[in-house]
# Entry
Amino acid sequence: MIGLKPLKIWFICGSQHLYGPEALAQVEENARKVVAGLDGSGKLVLPVEYAGLAKTSDEVADLCRRASADPECGGVILWMHTFSPAKMWIRGLSQLTKPVLHLHTQFFAELPWDSIDMDYMNLHQAAHGDREAGFMQTRLRLGRKVVVGHWSDEEVQARIDSWMRAARAWDDWQGARFCRFGDNMRDVAVTEGDKVGAEMAFGFAVDGWGVGDLVARMSEFSEGEVAALAAEYDELYEVVPALGPGGERRASLLDAARQELGIRAFLEAGGYKGFTHTFQDLHGLNQLPGLAPQRLMGMGYGFAGEGDWKTPALLRAMKVMGEGLSGACSFMEDYTYDLVPGAERVLGAHMLEICPTIASGKPRLEIHPLGIGGKADPVRMVFNAVKGPAVNASLVDLGNRFRLVANAVTAIDHPDLPKLPVARAVWSCAPDFKTAARAWILAGGAHHTAYSYDVTREMLDDFATIAGIELAYIGAGTTIDRFRQDLRMNEVYWHIAGGFRA
# Structure
């Protein structure tokens, strides 16, 4: 994936000098074995590195400062092997800027019932050492994930992996930049937002550029370079004859290839991780970019249409969370409904730009009129999405804070769509269509979303915890009465938690 840097997770073990050097040597040896076990499990997306044994306030503070300053540290796992008085953690944790996972585990899974003595009890004290640590973390209002169970347990490792994926996506946002060609689609509300507030909350910046700057970059590529990319399309996709070599619409495919080359070069030069444009600002472009955004999303860039800059950022984060899994993740829009009672389903699509990572089978390159934008017919990939469980998520700006809204969905079979020349997915919603749509609208969820077959509720919850934002999740157990009451309570909590700076 483009722009994804290597990261590692620090593992810090807590103890104190009360137990003497022999016991502390055993504690450190055990901690190193836990790290080796986690790192060698093959279940974790990021490597785990033993960072040290913290026995004093100064040692804790030093480790936390170094973790915060290390650009390759994506987060910190904390474990109290013995009792580690929590006051000595205050200074360090107050300075720590990296995501935290508190692992409540023990070195041995089973107690040696026939030989257990006080030496064993004193050495293996996570049962109350981690509770002491948990109190202080809560007193400090430290947003963190707590995972409980033996470190060799596959369920424990899966929960650590979920957090790692969220932590990596969070790190990827820090200092990230997203490109906005033109402005927002006129009169549309939800795609607007506070870009200053977003940079304060999330660490990424949004830069505006004129479409003319993009057109100038497109003009730098030779006809040979454009033709070479079009030939690559011929190999990768099922190309309709009109767009193929010698076809009467081949020039349109060459225009699309030039768009991809220009946008990609523009993004690379600016260090951007995603972009947006709007069909209401296409000066100098022959067609609305369709194929280019599809291809670039497949490389890992975030994208959304109509000047929406929040969804490219969310899409990029969700692509990072799913890195190494199926990779199936796309910009999406709830476009229209099939409202047969008891069998309701959503047809998700967009005008042109759905990522081919979610395609079932080989995409087909087609060209059709668009009807908006006032430009030539655009080229696009047409395909059906793979079937199976997925999540649809939206990041919205509520004025005083940001909210992440998500719905569990399942992509399902559907009739052929011979006259709909766009990429598409059809899904059912959890817990049911009426509850899901009603809850989404009550939560203020947008019509633009990031749609993933890899990202789970737990990953989104971990990500929201790290980001310090609200997650409004709609799933199997959602009821409108409870969901609406949660939204009301969240208005109070998140307004207070945000402080006056918001």
Remarks:
- The radius of gyration is 25 Å.
- The chain has a mean pLDDT of 96.
- Residues 325 and 462 are 18 Å apart (CA to CA).
